[in-house]
Every structure is written in C-alpha cells, then in structure tokens.
Amino acid sequence: MPLVKMTELFPKYGDNSYAIGAFNVSDMEMAMGAMKAAEELKAPIILQIAEGRLRYSPLKLLGPIMMAAAKECKVPTAVHLDHGGTLETIKLALSLGFTSVMFDGSKYPLEENIARTKEVVELAHAQGAAVEAEIGCVGGAEGDYKSVDILVTDVAEAKRFAAETGIDAMAVAIGTAHGNYQEQPKLRLDRLQAIAEATECPLVLHGGTGLTEDDFRNCYKRGIKKINIATASYDSSAAKIKEVYGEKPEANYFDFSDAIVQGTCDNIKKHMYIFGVENKA
Fold it and tell me: Using an 8 Å Cβ cutoff, are 186 and 211 in contact?
C-alpha cells in the first residue's frame, strides 16, 4: 500500500464511530509488531516516534526503518514525528520522508506557540506533510522530557489556535497524562465536546495508556480522531520478554526479538479493537 498522510486516515468530520491509532515504536521489532497488528486487523495505522525517545532510537537510524515498514505494510500507513520540540528534528523527519510532524509548543505562551507553530506549518506544508500541534498542556513526561502538570485546553484559545496556525490536527488537554497513571484520571469530556463543536480541526488524544475502554470510546464519540499509544506498547513488550525468560531461561537474542514483535502486536491489536478501527483499511 502507498505511504499516506495521517490526515488521509482520519474519519470524516462528523463521523465519531472510530479513531485512528498512532503507535510509538522504538526499534525494528516494534515496527514489525505494529505492521503485523495492522495487517491482521486490516486497520490503517500511524507509526510514530517521539523526540524525547531519540536518545535510545536515533532518528537517522530509526526513521528509515519506519519508512520502510510503512511502504511494505499492506494497509495504509502514515509515519509521524511525535512531540517534536526543535526545528532541527522536525526538518530531519521531513527530509526522511515522514508524512506528518508534531510541533509541541505547549510550554510557550499562546502568542509564541502560535508563531512557532505557523513556522512549522509553512515548512511542512511546503514539503507535502501534515502538522499536529498542541494547545493546553497534556501532563506527565514524554521520554526524556521533564514532567509537567496538566493544563486543560481553553475552548476559545483552541479555536483561535487552529484558525491562525492552519494546523491539520490539534492535540488537546482534557485531563490525560503521558506515562503510567498513579490514579485514575478524571477526563473533562465536557471540555472536549465544547472544543469539538468550536472547531473542525481533527482532535488528538495524548496520554492514552491506562485509560479504560469506556474512556477511549467516550473520547472518540466526542470528536477525537487520533489516539496516541506509547507506554502501553513498551510495557507489553517488556512483559513479553519477561514471560519468555520465565518459561525459557536459556532463551537467546532471537527469542527476545520475537517477544518484542509479539508484545507490540498484542497491545496494538487490543487498542485497535477498542478504537473501532479494524477493517477500516
């Protein structure tokens, strides 16, 4: 199947029956597991890597693997830079052929976030790539980034942000946080509904690990078009490695390699079913 832009995968505006899963990968095995899950469920997929993880998975090495996986995959696949914080990394992702990039300017005041995001939009759109950006602040920490507190997205600011920047997708903060939750989050579904009614820009949910099935469904039924999953896949892969070692202490490198593929695949399939995206390819 052809490599596609993430915007080509989103449900049409007004169709709140499912959401596209965007799954972080950090090596070839995770990319293979993601491909396997998508093909088995006939589900379109977004492969992504966050800038905060690049210390472990340099983009110059991982990026071409992700691109090759997407081009080999039998279902529509987009390749995305998650939580890009620097123009240097964003430019590198675009040069590698990524079909979308996220600029995370949520740490900046609104005016500066708008200005910096517009710069990224101009750069990416000139190369035919889509742009996601964040307004408000999703809590927790993504990779090596410092943990931050949740700042729920303001409706008026979200409407202005989408209109002035020309972004293709907007990450909003409604009570979720990156990483594993210490306690069950309290989602502001009322705020999500209000944002969705105020703008036609596709909305993105970050901090998905640890949410319940009902949480996910309540979110995409209120306008979320893309849901990010990272920590759950890493946890699933690690658990599978431990399971293999427990059953076979003499396991070798290739046993653990297979474990990462399967652990990633299992987690992604589980979430794809929840997101209602099977057979949407």
Answer: no
Q: How wide is the angle at C-alpha 182 spanned by C-alphas 178 and 183, nearest 5°?
A: 105
What is the separation of C-alpha 88 from the centre of its chain, rounded to a whole number of angstroms?
Answer: 20
**Other residues' Cβ atoms within 10 Å of the Cβ of residue 184:** 10
Please, which residues have CB within 8 angstroms of residue 205's CB and are 6 or more apart in sequence? 19, 171, 172, 174, 176, 219, 220, 224, 226, 227, 228
The architecture (CATH level 2) of 6-275 comes to Alpha-Beta Barrel (3.20)
Q: What pLDDT was estimated at residue 148? A: 44
The contacts of residue 122 (CB under 8 Å, 6+ apart) are none
pTM value > 0.90: yes
Q: Could you tell me the CA-to-CA distances from 31 to 65, 141, 264 in Å, in that order? A: 8, 22, 8
Domain ranges of the chain: 6-275
DSSP code per residue over 190-240 = HHHHHHHHH--SPEEE---TT--HHHHHHHHTTTEEEEEE-HHHHHHHHHH
Q: State both tokens at 101.
A: 């990039």
> Could you tell me the two tokens for 113?
């976030």
Catalytic residue positions?
82
Distance CA 143, CA 173 (A): 18
**φ, ψ for residue 31, nearest 5 deg:** -65, -40
78-104 confidence digits (pLDDT tens): 999 999 999 999 999 999 999 999 999
Q: How many Å apart are CA 187 and CA 68, to the nearest integer? A: 37
